[in-house]
Each structure stands twice: as C-alpha cells, then as structure tokens.
Write a structure and sequence with these properties.
By secondary structure, the chain is of the alpha/beta class. It contains six helices and eight strands, in the order E-E-E-H-H-H-E-E-E-H-E-H-E-H. The protein has a five-stranded mixed sheet, with helices on both faces. The N and C termini lie far apart (about 70 Å).
C-alpha cells in the first residue's frame, strides 16, 4: 500500500471515520476543537438559565473565554412556552360592581420561607376594578381566618358586602367553617370544576404574573 493512501469508513455518503497510511501504519489525523464561546450556545447548553445564573455558571469555565451577554438575546422557546391560549367565555368580564365578586387562589408552598416564615400566599382580586390583595401564610389552615378578616375589612372600610367569592376546588376553600361563614353573610361561593384552572383564570393569572416577577 502506497504512502498517503486514505482509508475512509462511511455511513451512506457521510464519512464517519478517516485515516491515512504512513509507511507501516494507518494514522488518524489529530483534530483540535475550540470551545464554543457564543452566548446562545451556553444558554442552550445550560438549559435556558436566567442571565444572572448564566454569568455565575460561566465563571467556572476556565478553559474557554466567557461570552459576552447579548443585550438583544431573545429565547423564542422560552416565549412560546409561556404563551397562553385565547380567553374563554368564562374569562370575559361581567358587569359586576365593586366587590360584588372576588376571585381568590392559594399559591405555595415555596422552598424558601419569607422573612416572616411564610411559605404560602393567598391572592384576592376584585372583579370590577381588578384591585388585588395578597396575604401571606405559614400554613393553609389560616385560609379561613384570612378570608373572614378580608370580608370584615371590606365591610368596615369600604362599606361593601361581597356578593360572590370565586375559587378553585381546593379543600382550604370548601371547609365547613368557611361555608358556614359565607352563608351567614349571604355570600355565594363559586367553585370551579375539577381540572379546570381557566374557570378561576383571574386569580390564576395574577399568581402567574407574581411568579414570573420573582
């Protein structure tokens, strides 16, 4: 076999392996790969980390130049994953007056407690004005007390009586204690069907907005 003869291993038309004959042996050419240094490559390789976390992670890449953050970098996958569907009929705003209807949802537990040792919060939204309140809790058992206090505050401060209270089907909202309270106040509890978060979309949307801002 003559010197310089090339041996190729192909899969179809694609060359998978290549070596050349140098006197007595086949030798594989040395190939050097330079590390990818684009911001987009590291962003995808590190599974779409937040920019601040990216900066921290890339400090440990001692064998490659740290890429400069691109101010105009846009992740289409992240945008598409957060897209929501078109509003459904039960999300359309009705002709409720102030505090006639209040939406509520509970969020948590969070892995890290707040300075006040809370790991849950409950949101309350007035349907007519979209004014929102957030109350923090250390345990879901505080839900009934928070709702009672909220209704009392609205009656004393705004001289308004709630007509309806819309929530999901969480057990903290369907307790006998809370049902009895609603009956005593003439408040209609509206509970969304199981596996239908869109039925409580106003409160779900607020919690989504709060979560994305953290």
């Amino acid at each position: 076999m003559e010197r310089g003869t090339i041996f190729q291993l192909k899969k179809g038309t694609k060359v998978a392996f290549e070596a050349f004959f140098d006197q007595n042996l086949f030798k594989i050419p040395e190939i050097s790969h330079s590390a990818k240094i684009t911001y987009d490559f590291w962003y995808k390789a590190l599974r779409h980390l937040a920019p601040s976390t990216m900066d921290t992670s890339l400090q440990f890449q001692s064998d490659a130049k740290t890429p400069t953050r691109c101010v105009k970098h846009i992740c289409t996958s992240r945008i598409e994953s957060k897209m929501t569907g078109l509003p459904r009929i039960f999300l359309l705003k009705n002709d409720w007056k102030e505090l006639d209807l209040v939406h509520s949802n509970l969020c948590g537990p969070f892995p890290v407690p707040s300075y006040g040792n809370s790991i849950y919060y409950i949101s309350l939204i007035d349907d007519a004005t979209r004014v929102s309140w957030v109350r923090f809790m250390t345990n879901t058992s505080e839900t009934t007390k928070i709702i009672k206090d909220f209704v009392t505050d609205m009656e004393l401060q705004n001289h308004k009586t709630l007509a309806a209270f819309r929530t999901d089907n969480g057990r903290e909202y369907v307790s006998k204690n809370l049902k009895g309270f609603f009956e005593s106040k003439g408040i209609i509890p509206e509970v969304s069907p199981p596996d239908s978060p869109g039925s409580n979309g106003v409160a779900e949307g607020l919690n989504c907005t709060i979560g994305e801002s953290l």
